[in-house]
Amino acid sequence: MKKIFLLLSFIFLVLVILNCSKSTKTYDGKIKIYLTDASASYDSVVIVVSQISVHKGSSLEDTLSDDTLSNWIVLSDSIRTYDLLQLRNGMMAVLDSGGLTPGHYTQIRLKVTDSCYVVVEGQRHYLRIPSGQQSGIKLVHQFTIEEKKLYELVLDFDAEKSIQQTGNGVYQLRPTIRVIPLVTSGEIEGKTNPKETEIFGITSVDTLGHTFSDTSGYFELVALPPATYSVAIVPLNMLYADTTITGIVVSAGSSVDLGTINLRLK
Question: What global pTM score does this model have?
């Protein structure tokens, strides 16, 4: 009788272990998502993120035609708050980091709360969010998660373009966000004299980088796709003339240091 009891106990233990192993998710790949900002002329731009998820699908066409909840994988659903204007000149916040099963993914979705706000001349204005709180901000970006590899993404949030004033003291959020794989991007850095300047990174078709120099005059334009850039420097002191440096070649994984740039008087 004792032997039968021991045998049954052993079988029960094996079944429990097998059942647990089946129900436990295993992740062979990893993703890390950073948040940065292209700067803006506000006192603060505060974004409150409530959920981050990715959509898994064989192709973008499948994703757009099959947008069911079952295909969205939640990476995080904890509340996090970011002041975008603190994320410039190379500063980035880790938006999410975790495991993902290998495969093809086609979209990223951010859900934000109605606690987002902008500070203008010391006055706080809560942002009206047309659709972001309900269905989320969907960013079309196809990527592949491979076994035992880390995939890193930068979400470059353009606060200046994303916030629109629609009436007297009424501001709304219509996010403009670039999605850039970290491995395929580069950066431009330098220092200006005088220190108070506004800097733009411009390609032949668009302005892809924007920042203000810090208190030492240092600036850094990050998450730039490979291209040839012009850097336009606009001094905040009206005694100095604007300066543009052309022919700056940025390649994947590179950092171009322009050194100290002395602006001339008008």
Answer: 0.80
